[in-house]
């Protein structure tokens, strides 16, 4: 019994000594659950947009690097679209769900965070800043998004993904 108590105590101590950033990594919501919520549990069938030509150039301009994919899956019902996108924070991808309605962002949710720093971008105090943002003619966000100290690269990644989602929404709405 004494060994069991020592094992439990050692486990608790190890858990307490872990850094908050190590605990912040993880999956906060499955992409399927995000899509279900975006469409009130009645999501449409997914569609595909091909990333080629001028659209590829625009996406790569926003990303400031080459885009490797050839197509992206999205969900659209009337004027609402939902996107699951990824961008590198510092070294690893951040998976983000973005909902757009009437060409305005209505929700940004960090689904999977793999970095050791910058995890604060998952909280509503940050993601709620994107609500109601639109895309300007020069593919910028319509309003400033405040950064988070120590999370600069994660903030940049989410801002890029918001711009790309708004751009892609414009394209699928003009088809």
Name the structural class: alpha+beta
Shape: globular
**Proportion of strand residues:** 15-25%
* Main beta sheet strand tally, sense and closure: 6 strands, antiparallel
**Count of distinct strands:** 6
Q: Trace the largest sheet across and list its strands.
A: 1-6-5-4-3-2
Mean pLDDT comes to 90
Distance between the termini: 69 Å
Low-confidence stretches: none
Q: Could you state the oligomeric state of the chains shown?
A: single chain
Overall description:
With 175 residues, the protein is of the alpha+beta class. It has helices at 2-17, 20-24, 31-38, 53-63, 124-127, 152-173, and strands spanning 26-27, 47-50, 71-77, 80-88, 93-101, 104-113. Strand 4 (80-88) and strand 5 form a beta hairpin. The radius of gyration is 19 Å and the shape is globular. It starts with a helix and ends with a helix.
Note the topology.
Elements: H1 2-17, H2 20-24, E1 26-27, H3 31-38, E2 47-50, H4 53-63, E3 71-77, E4 80-88, E5 93-101, E6 104-113, H5 124-127, H6 152-173
Antiparallel strand pairs: 1-6, 2-3, 3-4, 4-5, 5-6
